[in-house]
Amino acid sequence: MDTIIGIVITARVHQGRWPEKIMADIGGKPMIEQV
Fold it and tell me: How far is Cα 5 from Cα 26, in angstroms, rounded to an integer?
C-alpha cells in the first residue's frame, strides 16, 4: 500500500500541487518529505 500511495503522491507533486487533503487521507503522515 505504501508504494501505491507514494506513487500517487509523487504524481501529485509532479503536477505542482500538494493539497493537504492527501495528507489527511493517508492518516496525516507527510510522506512528501520522502519524495
Answer: 8
The HSE-up count of residue 1 (CA atoms within 13 Å, CB side) is: 3
CB contact at 8 A, 10 and 33: no
Euclidean distance between CA atoms 30 and 35, whole angstroms? 10
What is the pTM (predicted TM-score) of this model? 0.23
Cα 16 to Cα 3: distance, rounded to the nearest angstrom? 20
Q: Which pLDDT tens digit goes with each residue over 16-28? A: 555 555 655 665 5
